[in-house]
Amino acid sequence: MPPNLRPDPVTAIFGGCVLLAGVLLQLIHRAAWLREQIDFASDPRELRHFESRYRRRRQTSALIVLVGMLIPVVDLPVVWNLGPRASTIMWCMIGCLCIWIGVLAMGDLATTRAHSRVTLARLEVHKIELMEQLERLRPKPESSSEPTTDHQ
After folding, report:
1. Global pTM?
2. Degrees, nearest 5: CA angle 40-115-28
3. Closest CA to 115 of 32, 63, 51
4. Closest by alpha carbon to 16, among 81, 70, 91, 96?
5. Which of 1, 9, 63, 114 is surrounded by the fewest CB atoms within 10 Å?
6. Which strand (E) or helix (H) includes residue 14?
7. Which of 129, 97, 123, 112 is nearest to 29 (CA)?
8. Domain spans of the chain?
């Protein structure tokens, strides 16, 4: 009798949705990276940040795709026939992958937040420099030629 290689329909649909979400994230990240390459071509510092952010997000999306593929595979009757220990280990591996995805997402959030703070501080310094230049270039009001006398 051949092994049953049909996953539960609910598990297959859920795994397919997770896989599709990962693929869509890959496409979205790729489109954003292509836009950023054009928008920040003249600023190597920003380009390096966006490139590393793109790599992190691609890795996270790829792991989401992997989880989407593993969910229906782990739920196959063949795996369950190996015994509860095998399926439990495999589900724990999926759980660990999900935790790792969360850690990567938190790391991406932290680095993006730190980069935003540094960029805002740099823009504030630039704004102050421009305001000082504006003050130097602004015409000074002519002082009146009549002497003022204070009688106090």
Report:
1. 0.77
2. 60
3. 51
4. 70
5. 1
6. helix 9-39
7. 112
8. 9-135
Write out the two tokens for 71.
């969910």
The owner of tokens 């290689």 is: 5
* Structure tokens belonging to residue 101: 């995805």
Question: What DSSP element (H or E) covers 124?
Answer: helix 84-137
pLDDT at 150: 58
Mean pLDDT, the chain, as a whole number? 88
Identify the helix (H) or strand (E) that includes residue 59.
helix 44-74
Q: What does the alpha-carbon distance between residue 102 and residue 86 come to, in Å, rounded to a whole number?
A: 25
128-142 pLDDT, tens digit each: 999 999 888 888 777
Whole-angstrom CA distances from 151 to 30, 148 are 75, 10
Question: Which amino acid is residue 93, in one-letter code?
Answer: M
- CB of 21 closer than 8 Å to CB of 7: no
pLDDT tens digit sequence for 66-123: 999 999 988 888 888 888 898 899 999 999 999 999 999 999 999 999 999 999 999 9
